[in-house]
Amino acid sequence: MERPTTPRKRDRPRAIKWETELLEIIEESPDVKTFRFEKPEGWTFIPGQFVMVFFPDVFGKKNRAYSIASSPNSPYIDLTIKLYGVFTHHMWTLKEGSSWTLRGPYGHFYMDMNRKNDIILIGAGVGITPLMSMLRWSTEEKIDRRFLLIYSNKTPRDIVFNEEIQMIQKANPNVKVVHTLTRLHNVPEPIRDAWPGLRGRISADMIREQVSEWQKEGAERATVFGCGPAAMLTSMEEVMLELGWPKEEIHYEKFW
Ligand SMILES: Cc1cc2nc3c(=O)[nH]c(=O)nc-3n(C[C@H](O)[C@H](O)[C@H](O)COP(=O)(O)OP(=O)(O)OC[C@H]3O[C@@H](n4cnc5c(N)ncnc54)[C@H](O)[C@@H]3O)c2cc1C
């Protein structure tokens, strides 16, 4: 089978702007929805890239960036979005068939497909979106690289893509997933007591412990991709540097 490779800079997918209809809305968690669109013919992206969203009639030239959560193999572009402020409140009023303007793909937050080293994915909440595209695509393409995903959410019902992540873990023995929850004190006691994962925010200590356990002795350094709030990304970078990771193996996408 021919292996997918990372395109050279000049061959990277070219950004276009187009108007499209919202095909489907998928409820993912209490405040996260996936908005699904058809992929324009001939258009593609690299897992980890994002598009800009516009509603010119409402916000003029103002836009917001959204990482693509689906795999490039999918016929759809899935944007998985958390309800937050001005733009997202507008999105929550929209129905299937509404008109959206997208522009992209953009971004350099993606794996080098020409390499074989391991990959560490560190995500919080909706920061899973670019990491999910990487995981989906790598599983479909049977990419022979080990993945460690450290994923933080508030409570069990906030875990976006929970079932699918479990399925990926079963289907792809190269994938190890470590969940951590930050607001277990807000859930009923039986659920809290039964939670099998870690507790607390993704900290330097947590990363250090998980990476040290998972890392194979003598293996080439894993490439690290982090996506989430700035504080988490700062701890991530600090601890990876402290563990001896070269700066060029540490990548992050800051959502806000
Ligand atoms: C490359 C890139 C990819 C992104 N991908 C996604 C994605 O896949 N899914 C997604 O939901 N968002 C994503 N975002 C964030 C998105 O672009 C918007 O910032 C977000 O949807 C909020 O927009 P808003 O207009 O609703 O809120 P605003 O009215 O813009 O919110 C006000 C302020 O709150 C901050 N903020 C926004 N959201 C949060 C939050 N959840 N927690 C804390 N502070 C916040 C912002 O810095 C902003 O200044 C991405 C951002 C970038 C740069």
Summarize the SSE layout with pairings:
Elements: E1 16-21, E2 24-29, E3 32-38, E4 50-54, H1 56-59, E5 63-67, E6 76-82, H2 86-91, E7 99-106, E8 119-124, H3 128-140, E9 147-153, H4 162-171, E10 175-181, H5 189-194, E11 198-199, H6 204-214, E12 223-228, H7 230-242, E13 250-254
Parallel strand pairs: 8-9, 8-12, 9-10, 10-11, 12-13
Antiparallel strand pairs: 1-7, 2-3, 3-6, 4-5, 4-7
Helix pairs in contact: 6-7
Bound molecules: flavin-adenine dinucleotide.
The site of flavin-adenine dinucleotide has 18 residues, from β5, β6 and α2.
Describe what this molecule looks like in 3D.
This protein is α/β, with parallel strands linked by helices and 256 residues long. The chain has two domains: 9-106, Translation factors (Elongation Factor Tu (Ef-tu), domain 3); 119-254, Nucleotide-binding domain of ferredoxin-NADP reductase (FNR) module (Rossmann fold, 3-Layer(aba) Sandwich), CATH 3.40.50. Helix content is 25%, strand content 30%. It is built from seven helices and 13 strands. It has a six-stranded parallel beta sheet, with helices on both faces. A four-stranded antiparallel beta sheet has the order 1-7-4-5, with no helix packed on it. β10 (175-181), α5 (189-194) and β11 (198-199) form a beta-alpha-beta unit. α6 packs across α7 (230-242). The longest helix has 13 residues, at 128-140. It binds flavin-adenine dinucleotide (FAD). The site of flavin-adenine dinucleotide (FAD) has 18 residues, from β5, β6 and α2.
